[in-house]
Amino acid sequence: MKIAQIAPLYEAVPPKLYGGTERVVAWLTDALVDAGHEVTLFASAEAQTRADLVSVRDQAIRLDPADLKSDLAAHMSMLHDVRQRMDEFDVLHFHVDMIQFPFFADCASHTLTTLHGRLDLKDLPGAYRRWHQFPLASISNDQRRPLRNANWIGTVHHGLPATLLPFNANPRGDYLAFLGRISPEKRVDRAIAIARRVGMPLKIAAKIDGQDKAYYEREIAPLLEGASDVSFVGEIGDAQKPEFLGNAAALLFPIDWPEPFGIVMIEAMACGTPVVAWRCGSVPEVIDEGQTGRIVDNEDDAVAATREVMRYDRAAVRAVFERRFTSEVMAERYVRLYSQLVRGRSQDLGLRMA
Predict the structure, then answer these.
(1) In the prediction, which pLDDT does 351 show?
(2) What is the 3-state secondary structure (H, E, C) of the chain?
(3) How much of the chain exceeds pLDDT 70, in percent?
(4) Residues 207-237: pLDDT tens digits?
(5) At what angle are helices 299-309 and 188-198 packed, to 10 degrees?
(6) Cis peptide bond prior to 166, omega within 30° of 0
(7) Which conformational region is residue 111 in: left (phi greater than 0), alpha (psi within -120 to 50 degrees), or beta?
(8) How many angstroms separate the CA atoms of 163 and 154, rounded?
(9) CATH 3.40.50.2000: does it fit domain 176-324?
């Protein structure tokens, strides 16, 4: 099958540090190539991929030192290039939210759009009614709740390469981990409180976006001042994750928002590290309760669950990851959706010619 993957241009593919969507696009693209498909990736020039790369910008927007730049112009130019070449592909797989809809409204059946973000925003229902012809994939079933009547054709959970984060059977296990962003919805303050009640050090590896600096300085920095039991190691990339996640006794994921997926949970599982997560968004779909972690509703339960999961069989955690969340599994599920779209177009063509 000939497949085009259209990535966002904000981060490198895969990102050098924090970044979700571009990371998934990289993993999916390589898994499709490994499965024998002809894949073309539209992305910024520094992308690392086994597919044919069409570089549509000299570098990812976040990495570009230019003071003045237009993310809208960059993405519109990319979509123009995709449109010019669309007849070369069986499927155009978009990961750029909905910006492509006006460009491809006359050929929506040629496309699949994976939505990677939260969908409970005011203006979205009207947009998805207006462009209802576009087939959509969700990254969790819970993600769909605000847009139940959109044109969903499947849910595909994220997956990562089985060799990316090696299983650690003998971790140091002398600290708890938090990995993600410092923001109100990620609730690192909860993670600090849980770790202190459990009586274990907490290591925080996190990005601080510009919009969250005031929150960090007001709410989080005071919790770290003079603390010997909490260390902030900053933003880390894939190279540092095996050490950071693999040696943790558990990952704390105390979110307070409708998380569409939560890649960090499966990154921890790949290392054999169990997860304690709040019952929000996709969490009940990702965590196998009592096997890969615990799902909790309050801080008291989280403290008890953290003490419990440290006794879990880490090999069993890794086994669940290999069964459910590798990039190979993710690619197989997307290929089923691609095939469904191609068959649907063939049937429509047959009816028109009859």
Answers:
(1) 45
(2) CEEEEECCCCCCCCCCCCCCHHHHHHHHHHHHHHCCCEEEEEEECCCCCCCEEEEEECCCCCCCCCCCCCHHHHHHHHHHHHHHHHHHCCEEEECCCCCCCCCCHHHHHHEEEECCCCCCCCCHHHHHHHCCCCCEEECCCHHHHHHCCCCEEEECCCCECCCCCCCCCCCCCCCEEEEEECCCCCCHHHHHHHHHHHCCCEEEEEECCHHHHHHHHHHHHHHHCCCCCEEECCCCCHHHHHHHHHCCCEEEECCCCCCCCCHHHHHHHHHCCCEEEECCCCHHHHCCECCCEEEECCHHHHHHHHHHHCCCCHHHHHHHHHHHCEHHHHHHHHHHHHHHHHHHHHHHHHHHHC
(3) 97
(4) 898 889 999 999 998 988 888 899 999 988 8
(5) 60
(6) no
(7) beta
(8) 27
(9) yes
Task: Provide the CATH topology of domain 2-161+326-353.
Answer: Rossmann fold (3.40.50)
Instruction: Give the Å distances, CA to CA, from 258 to 3, 103, 193, 282, 287.
Output: 31, 30, 22, 7, 15
Q: Provide CATH 3.40.50.2000 ranges for the chain.
A: 2-161+326-353, 176-324
